[in-house]
Amino acid sequence: MKVLVINCGSSSLKYQLINPSTEEVFAIGLCDRIGIHGSKFEYEVPATDFELELEHDMPTHKEALELVLNTLTGEHGVIADINEVDAVGHRIVHGGEEFTTSVLLDEKVMAGIEANNDLAPLHNPANLLGVKTCMELIPGKPNVGVFDTAFHQTMPAKAFMYPLPYADYTELKVRKYGFHGTSHKFVAGLANDLLGNPANSKVIVCHLGNGASISAVKDGKSVDTSMGLTPLQGLMMGTRCGDIDPAAALFIKAKRDLTDKEIDARMNKKSGILGIFEKSSDCRDLEIAREGGDERAALAIDMMTYRIRAYIASYAAAMGGVDMICFTGGIGENSNLIRSKSLEGLEFMGVELDEAVNSVRKKGSVKLSTETSKVAIYKIQTNEELVIARDTLAIVK
């Protein structure tokens, strides 16, 4: 079975052609800067190490997807005909309360997704555009929606409710939803495998990248997560502030005479690492600057890892303990400094990091805890596309 996985952003389109049964990736790539000058197309065939990168005009997502399909079936293609694609799996950011699992996409379902556009105005419209384009260019093939929020819909009310007037929940659906669900689902599932699939397990997943979130997963189900109604809540991230006093935003808005859009942009695009460090939002730049004695870089790292550590401890308390702590995402998988500093001071929980192993960069799943540690610590390479492909296969069958 061949599943085309599509992750459609407002000006980008990530894609993979996968066999979810064997986990073979036939092709992978990216269409970047869609509708913007300097559009770029990337295509890679892992089996042959063939790579293609070129500038190509892509005014809309339709032209981008046409380029993807033509390349998949062209001179360096991996299929002879587009009909070899059995199904298309789509990443959908926000499913609200209605969509708690992956679902076959039709007009009724798409209308339901569109009703949640207010909850994810930057993502859901782009995701739906990708679905409609695929239905037009690959007619007759089933399309499946896999939601970032679905994995966290097992959270109990005490975790997902906000202490606001209850009508804000019943009438406006204001509550914690959580994101990065496909990544948390994949890593938590692999963690349970590594633990020997016990009947009861307590896993904390730290998905650390430019966007970052932590989840508490008990017996394979999410019981809490750091992101909320939007991806702004929770950890300090590349450009997002994470948890702050809500009144601080109102204070800044009034003092600087900002519009709603301007204060939203300030918290989402100008805060976090970028807000403190000011020179970059990239954690790699941050670490280099810290090594060079940059005090602002050191402060940003201390702030970021302090919050990660606090969330780990609070989720261990919420679950009554923890069996494994997992690090994933671009930063979680690659930064030994962030992993180390995030676990500092957690020795009272029985957490012991093997610094020698932690300092060596290896791919795949790597155990980072000492033999005497009461809590297993792992670095796990996430695979959100495989989760989407697996769910698509399950729905189609």
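[next item in queue]
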Amino acid sequence: MDKDAVQNQPIIRYEDEQLIETEDSYVTEFPLTIMVNGKEFATVICSPTHLEELVIGFLASEGAIYKKEEIKHLQIDDSKGFAHVELTKSLSDRFEYSTKRMVASCCGKSREFYFQNDAAIAKTSMSNIILTPRQILNMMTGLQSASTLFKQTGGLHNAAISDGEAFFEHRQDIGRHNALDKLYGFCLTHQIPVRNKVLIFSGRISSEILLKAAKIGVGVILSKSAPTTLAITLAHDLNITAIGFIRGDSFNIYSHPERIKGVK
């Protein structure tokens, strides 16, 4: 069973020139150590919700698995902070150096490790999805409406995956990469095709986030924030439509605008 993502704690608040005893909501920070075939693979600092999805998405994003069926057994012991995973195969030698990593909530993983795996795992998008501007604005509105715990705490990243129509699945975590891994794990678990899906994200589109989208396999990523230069270079190279600054009734298209109706 997942633990609570938010806890209430007593605080002292200064307001109107007075010190007031009250309560505030804190996000829960939870270390989850992932054991693969009896060996420590990584410790992920995360929000303690949808942990099975997180583990599945994380392992797929790292290239340790390619589909859920490669997991023979998965057990979450959240009382001790462990995920025990038994695969139907052995891990390849390229994972030996990566054991016992600490994957922090703030930045996901070390940049050196990240880029060593990207060439083999990141996918050039073959998506043929076509979106209207109104669908883009509605998807961002949907993400903001679903982000209730962020409004309560201000301490969570939010992400969703959608087809622009009826399908919309939302996840949140203290780690921006974790939120995306949970969505990836959800899609793998339920065998949901991602080729013509859209990622909606609350934070900036960095190179790591763009590569995460490529690893998942979507063709479009939306954000209310800005992209980085490297992220846009990668988006052009990987055939991903990156859209940022979605605010009110406007947004910026940074790459592959051919997927948006009305753009010539």
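[queue empty]
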